[in-house]
Amino acid sequence: MLIVVLAGVYAFRHQESQAEKVAAPVAPAAAAAVDSSACIASKEYMRANHMRVLAEWRNSSVREGNRVWVAPDGRKIDKSLNTCLSCHSSNRMFCFNCHMYANVKPNCWNCHISPMEAP
Amino acid sequence: MNEDRRSFIKKAGIGILAGIGSAAGLFPALSLEKTVFPAWDEKPEPGKHRWGMLIDTRKCSGNCRECVAACHFTHNVPDFGNRKDEVKWIWKSSYENVFPTASRQFQSPEVTERPYVALCNHCAEPPCTKACPTEATFRRWDGIVSMDYHRCIGCRFCMAACPYGSRSFNWRDPREGIKLASTDYPTRMQGVVEKCNFCSERLVKGLDPACVEACPEQALVFGDLNDPSSEIRKLLESNETMQRKPELGTKPSVFYII
């Protein structure tokens, strides 16, 4: 019991000390916390259109600097492949099962670290 | 007796759950690149900021390679150990290579013999972006000359256009040359050009560039050249500074105090 409580206190302190290290040249906007706890759209839509969503996100975030995507229900989401991977990489075969079955070879993982390669 | 036992187990259970909950912050769920909400909320205003860097070469000591090591680790820059395949984002070079057209003659040997840090100048008039046939490299809204690696076809026109040698080509698969991989940034692939991005992925999180953070002498100062009250502007006003090859009209955003 005591050990558990101590571990909790340590974890809290640890998070605090990490937060202090951040020096900000740009003042962070009063933005909502990142929400990647739920999928950005329905399963059916994402199955058919995930590649279009990713291409659109990439173009608008890299080239126009418009990094925040607002979901129809008002959630604000970082336009990043890592937003998807923060949940979906829990299944290492999430991307590969379908892509192998459909024999499509996207070149995402030539550069980005795939869930299969993650340590 | 039974009632006490029951309430003890309840309390212990709550305690364990709280412990697990707070300990979750200790261990990242997976060691992939992390999602961090950007420091700004909406589409940025073009031309509002212009990021720049001032390098105080008097503070920069000869043998130190901290900035190079930090940058190359952060961005997964490969090292193949030979000049032909060399990929570099920031490097140290001699006075005559960094300032080959400097007008001042007969500088003291102390000045001409010490090494100088060189990196992409993030020019206000970048010749590389004009040479790129696919617009893979472009000048961003905040003055950073950026690369969209998705679009690069590896023609290397930008390398020929850059007067500072700031661009490197991946002749080989870069993953073979990365000894210690950072999971916070992607790698590149064989056949694309790469260069310094002024740590745009760190700026978005509100952090200074990796080289600035790593320098033990604080010789590198990063800031907004469009903000008259910024530290970099004050230092530029109070010091005699130099740019690399200013006569070319590229208007570099990297300045040197000699």
Describe the SSE topology.
The complex is a heterodimer of chains A (119) and B (258).
Chain A: H1 2-20, H2 43-64, E1 68-70, E2 76-78, H3 81-88, H4 94-102
Antiparallel strand pairs in A: 1-2
Chain B: H1 2-23, E1 51-56, H2 66-74, E2 90-93, H3 95-98, H4 109-113, E3 116-119, H5 127-131, E4 137-139, E5 145-147, H6 157-161, E6 168-169, E7 193-194, H7 200-203, H8 210-214, E8 220-224, H9 231-238, E9 241-242, E10 254-257
Parallel strand pairs in B: 1-10
Antiparallel strand pairs in B: 1-8, 2-3, 4-5, 6-7, 9-10
Task: Characterise this structure.
The complex is a heterodimer of chains A (119) and B (258). Chain A has 119 residues and is mainly alpha-helical. In chain A, 49% of the residues lie in helices and 5% in strands. Chain A has 4 helices and 2 strands; from the N terminus they run ααββαα. A two-stranded antiparallel sheet of chain A has the order 1-2. In chain A, strand 1 and strand 2 form a beta hairpin. The longest helix of chain A has 22 residues. Chain B has 258 residues and is of the alpha+beta class. Chain B has a single domain, classed as Alpha-Beta Plaits (2-Layer Sandwich), CATH 3.30.70.20. In chain B, 26% of the residues lie in helices and 14% in strands. Chain B contains 9 helices and 10 strands. Chain B has a 4-stranded mixed β-sheet. Chain B has a two-stranded antiparallel sheet with strand order 2-3. Chain B has a two-stranded antiparallel sheet with strand order 4-5. Chain B starts with a helix and ends with a strand. Chains A and B meet through helix 1, helix 2 and helix 3 of A and helix 1 and strand 8 of B.
